[in-house]
Amino acid sequence: MSIHPTSIISKEAKIDSSAEIGPYCIIRGAVTIGKNTVLENHVIVGAEGGEVIIGENNRLYAGAAVGGAPQDK
User: Fold this and answer.
1) N or C terminus: which one in the chain shows less Cβ crowding within 10 Å?
2) CA distances from 53 to 3, 47, 61, 66 (A)
3) Please, are residues 70 and 47 in contact by the beta-carbon 8 Å criterion?
């Protein structure tokens, strides 16, 4: 597992050993990240009080925000 030292990872997160977490990523709450998934820089995943599951072989690019409240209701 490769996690950049500038990233912030929740204690509840379950990250596969083959996953890569890039610089300045934030993983909040109960997040599961599957095999061979890559988070580029500045990716935010999860929210307090929810659960996010990201499967295998995914790539989330810079600026992605997954699992939080909608930006427009």
Assistant:
1) C
2) 18, 12, 17, 10
3) no
